[in-house]
Amino acid sequence: MTVSLYSLNYAKIISAMSKFKIYLEYDGTRYSGWQKQKNAKTVQGTLLRIAEEIFKDSSSDIQGCGRTDSGVHALNYVAHLDVKTMLAPEIIKLKLNDKLPFDINVLEVEKINPKFHARHDVILRSYIYQISRRRTAFGKSYVWWIKDELNFGIMVSVAKNLIGMHDFVSFADNDPENKSTKVMIENVQLKEAGDLILIRITGSHFLWKMVRRIVGVLAEIGRNKMTEEDLLFFLNNKSNGPAKYTAPPSGLFLEQVLYKGDKLNKELNSPLILINKPYFINK
């Protein structure tokens, strides 16, 4: 049997792994976070199952830019896909979205350098948390409704203490994957937007439940039930105090994941507005 040089070259190409950068948005309400788990529905697990259906290849792999907690949402999550395929990025996007459930959406797919790693190459991450000052019929899955009146000015003033390098051990659950509990917080912004209070925290990385506990402590200070001294104590001493103030996951959104050359959004807006703003490629 004669085998053409073309056939040999094609087989060689198709057997080689290609790497793609995937931009995602998802509603985390129905998922136990990003990371694949044996007995729980997760975003990564869902993507891996669908990728295997599409590419008929059990060696396909999808790795994300980091973990998100159960119930937490993402506006601009980044993952990389390693797969044997000749399909173009746009076709991969269409095929993934055809099979994905309604609450996970692929925004963009691009072929990327094989050395790229979605998690290891991250420079900065930003999260937005939404607190609602009123009961809402439409946004319950996307806000934390606080009935008490909040002193916004005090929250803004106290939040400045979070900026810089701190040991956030008091704000995190124990996690064997965390080699260090020290985190560099680049910026903390708070904004009033109608009945919402928006809190954006930008940092090098985040520990498990860290953002939600920061928000919970800021809310207690806004209620005038805690003070700036309490926050400083938590930053300078190991304490289980913040755990009981952990904000619910519903109001938390991963806003952006920045790599070399990317720019952080200048404006702080509600995630529900940002959903309609295609900023996932922000060079």
* Broad structural category: alpha+beta
> In CATH's first tier, which class of the largest domain applies?
Alpha Beta
Q: What is the 3D form?
A: globular
Report strand %. 25-35%
For the terminal residues, how far apart are their CA atoms? 52 Å
- The helix tally amounts to 7
Order of helices and strands: HEHEEHEEEHEEEHHEH
Question: Got a strand count?
Answer: 10
Chain-averaged pLDDT: 89
**Integer-rounded radius of gyration:** 21 Å
Q: CATH architecture of the largest domain, please?
A: 2-Layer Sandwich
Largest sheet: 10 strands, mixed
Poorly predicted spans: 277-283
| Assembly state of the chains shown | single chain
The CATH topology assignment of the largest domain is Alpha-Beta Plaits
In CATH terms, the superfamily of the largest domain is Pseudouridine synthase I, catalytic domain, C-terminal subdomain
Portion of residues within helices: 10-25%
Number of domains: 2
Structure, briefly:
The protein is an alpha+beta fold and 283 residues long. It has helices spanning 5-15, 43-55, 89-99, 152-159, 210-222, 228-236, 271-274, and strands spanning 18-26, 61-64, 73-83, 104-111, 124-132, 144-145, 164-167, 182-193, 196-203, 252-258. It has two domains: 5-111, Alpha-Beta Plaits; 124-274, 2-Layer Sandwich (Alpha-Beta Plaits).
Overview of the structural elements:
- The N and C termini lie far apart (52 Å).
- It contains 7 helices and 10 strands.
- The radius of gyration is 21 Å and the shape is globular.
- It folds into 2 domains: 5-111, Pseudouridine synthase I, catalytic domain, N-terminal subdomain (Alpha-Beta Plaits); 124-274, Alpha-Beta Plaits (2-Layer Sandwich), CATH 3.30.70.
- With 283 residues, the chain is an alpha+beta fold.
- The longest helix is centred in the N-terminal third of the chain and has 13 residues, at 43-55.
- Strands 1, 2, 3, 4, 5, 6, 7, 8, 9 and 10 form a 10-stranded mixed beta sheet that branches.
